[in-house]
Amino acid sequence: MESHKELLQRLLDKIQENSLDIDLNKISEAYILANESHIGQKRKSGEDYILHPIEVAEILVEMKMDTDTIVAGILHDVVEDTLITLPDIEYTFGKDVRKLVDGVTKLRNLPRTDSKKIENIRKMVVAMSEDIRVVIIKLADRLHNMRTLKYMTPEKQIIKSKETLEIYAPIAHRIGMAKIKWELEDISFRYLYPKEYKEISDLVSSKREEREEYTSKIIEGIKNELNNQKIKAEVTGRPKHLYSIYRKMIEKEKKFADLNDLIAIRIMVDKEVECYNVLGIIHNLFIPVSGRFKDYIAVPKSNGYQSIHTTVKGPNDQNVEIQIRTHDMHRIAEEGVAAHWKYKEKKSKAKNEEYYAAVKKIIETNVENPENFAQKVTGTLLNQTIFVFTPKGDVVELQNGSTALDFAFQVHTQIGYRTIGAKVNEKIVSLDQMLENADKVEILTSKNTKGPGKDWINMVNNNSSKAKIRKWFKDKEFEEKSKEGEQILEKEFEKIGIKFKELEEDERVFLYMKKFNVATLEMLCYKFAIGDLSLDGFMKKFEIKEEKNIEQVLEEETEKGNKRKEKSQGGVKISGTENTMYRFAKCCSPLPGDDIKGYVTRGRGIAIHREDCDNFHSLMEHEPDREIEVYWDEEAASSDITKYQYNFTLKTYDRSGLLLDIIRILNEYKMEIVNVNTNHIKENANRLFLIHFGIMIKKREDFDRLSNNLMSMKDVIEVIKK
Description:
By secondary structure, this protein is an alpha+beta fold. Helices cover 51% and strands 17% of the residues. It has a 5-stranded mixed β-sheet. A hairpin with a 2-residue loop joins strand 8 (419-424) and strand 9. Helix 7 packs across helix 9 (132-147).
């Protein structure tokens, strides 16, 4: 048995052999943690448990996965079997590794009952739609467990094999991981049907020499012809897998001796165009079998698989299956999404994302019917996608059951909205015409169309198309009601002699919209039209009230502010003293949020200044020993009761009614006015207005917001802060 040091080195060597750009230090760290966590644990084989996660990691390396996936493969059992927690993993290896390990842990044990098994299938597919690497790790885990299945009891062997054949192998197929799918199927076949497995295995072995000689002869003939045509290609023979032979015997009700297409030849070239050149050469060399041609390059499978399949008559009238693909297509065919993970081409990535979105839709639409869901995952799901062509020959992927109108919305939402008709295979069809594989679809549009009809919702089968149609009607209703609301407002403002358009930037409109969380003027009009907001309440803000004497207004507002001031409590603590009298300096009006300093006055307690106050600095120059440390009382400062007087000045143009407008805004912001006074100045031959305010306020941020809104008012020039 290898030592733990040798085991780690074996993994590191495999990574280097595969020329992967992997963080080896992170891999070593993960191994140390897994080894320490699993110490003393044994597998059914009697081997140290650490062997299993290392074997899983090696499978992931062979798939050419990234660092985080391999690390998660090493750690995939630690949360379930040891004291290590997910936060521990995140702290050392990051969020991605935590997410992957968590996903694999949730998929660990599939219960035996059908209902619970279906529930776990759902979990698996959900995990796949969130991060496909979770499923890749799980498949690697299952593959190693199947390779060591001989150490399990016969009962466990059957349970695991059935589970693998029904759940894991189909999912491996669905995501295009052919190598894993084949091995999982053959191992499961061996334990579920041992008699049939041995029979087919023996028959395949007995005919091996004969079949290899026959295959070599065909390969040699193909290579010679390709060389003559100056096409560089790799030509190999591929034996049929045992389970696929067994399934063919069952499906076609034939004996092994009657199967005449057990030989498969694979031809790999560099470029896509060469695939079709090779196809022509093959069909010249051999007679093609009718109905046995598939072009998965032009129309790829939903899992990204691309290849040309054709069956021809070889020597002795024996059927020979030939697959033609590029090297890149082959990598994806063998490794599926694992290949996509390493070779992140934009086209491939987009194709994958479309598939996972489709999987998510299946999950969402089958939440209440688990049996139907399981059927889709293991059966129907494999054939859920159709491919149709645009007039230009581009391929569009759609879910099975899509209509011509679904196609229009799939191409582009606006094309869907402007649709007036459709052609399928050059013939005019109704918009609810169901599409089939390889249909050529053309959408007829018009810019002058009024948009979707109310019956359109019944002419589409895709949820996304239905959502787009519903959105159009919703947007149309919004537009109509918004215009209706605007007309209502215009009439109301006309009654009081105001043009509504002039009020779009009005502070009163802005504050009203802010209060009711309305983002746009159109939305405001819409809400008035549908009765969601009170029109009377809004119009009251624009009522022309009897003009009060300015002195009377100031007196009222000041009186209100002083009453509130009397109730307010201070919020400053003085270092080394308690219950010491203090006051806030009027020269700088400090507020919570400002850095403050204290000055010990003669007979008037302590004056609280802003740290940047010029007066304070002047006092310190002459009497530095009178400085005292002060700080805000956080509890008092955060209280709704505690407010502070703050003085500021507005410089404005002189206009009638401006002061009343400003006081209205102060009231909207719930700012209590302690005092107000005014005076006129001349500046650059302009007569300006200075309005001095004393207000009660909680903190600096409140004043900053108020200041910004005052500056947005018409005729306000400057906010002068103390």
